[in-house]
Amino acid sequence: MSPLPFGSKTTADQVLAGIDLQGRTALVTGANIGIGYETARALSHAGARVIFACRNPQRGKDAVMRSNADEPRGRGELMNLDLGQLSAVAESVRALDLERLDMLVCNAGIYPGAYRQTADGFEETVGVCHIGHFLLFLLLLPALEQSDDARVVMVSSESHRMPRTLDFDRLPLTQKDYGQNIAYGQAKLCNVLMANEIERRFGEPGASGAAAIHGYSLHPGTLVTTGIGRNSLLARVAVQLSRPFTKTAAQGAATSVMCAAHPELREGGGRYYVNCQPGRASREGNHPEVAARLWERSREWVADYLR
Fold first, then answer.
1. Each residue of 94-132: b (16+ CB within 10 Å) or e?
2. Could you confirm whether 305 is annotated as catalytic?
3. In this predicted structure, what is the pLDDT of residue 235?
4. Contact, 59 vs 78, CB < 8 A?
5. Cα–Cα distance between 278 and 271 in angstroms, integer?
6. What residues contact residue 222 under an 8 Å CB cut-off, 6+ apart?
7. Which of 37, 184, 216, 273 is catalytic?
8. DSSP state of 132
9. What is the distance between the alpha carbons of residues 235 and 33, in angstroms, rounded to a whole number?
10. 226 — pLDDT class (breaks 50, 70, 90)
11. 237 CB contacts (<8 Å, ≥6 apart)?
12. pLDDT at residue 73 in the model
């Protein structure tokens, strides 16, 4: 694969310039604000049917209306999705009219403040960023298998490097051993491992005729304007103070849309991307045995919703 002429200042629209996504369908989580919105908007404006999967129905509706108003070809639509409640994830997928899915962009996430749990009793950061997305992927797997170019994009972070290893005895964290940076690092490491395991399990066509599904992970940029820090005063302040020196949301979304839709990356799964270029994930993030163990543990967590 030749290096693409994109970098840290490239916007999502520039990545998709000249690319026609008519007939393709994408689902983007956390699409009502920031990087998620710019990812969904850019894909929609390039001709794709885009499902804006959002936790807050009103904000999601406003985002879809804003995106569609800016582009007559825009085909955005709303899906109510609460990744912090597994039963709600299952209900949302069942209500979705979707025979085929070409792009799943797992963008939604949170940077935690105080210790919180999801409705299912998981530490909220890992629960939302990883476990909810893991169930979403498995429930959408039949639709992804109908695509001739299916891609799953996990929006991770350079924070996946800390902790350096994934301690399964402390995953997810309990209130007793909780630390917000550790929780966030765990969640982002899970994103990298999940993308790589998708590539290993589904990166080749299945014996039953199912199409290949490629997995990608990425770092969108540091402290890009987004809603990820809504639960942490420190994170919100840091984002505001750093805004003049960091990427815009449109630039932060560039690597996501490149992984999701650029023709040159069709065979680029199983890699970690930074600034629209191949990067290198941590040693733990590239560890196949850790990824396989996380996959099996995650299936146990969501097993009740796969029957």
1. eebebebbbbbbbbbbbbbbebbebebebbbbbbbbbbb
2. no
3. 45
4. no
5. 7
6. 158, 242, 246
7. 184
8. I
9. 16
10. low
11. none
12. 76
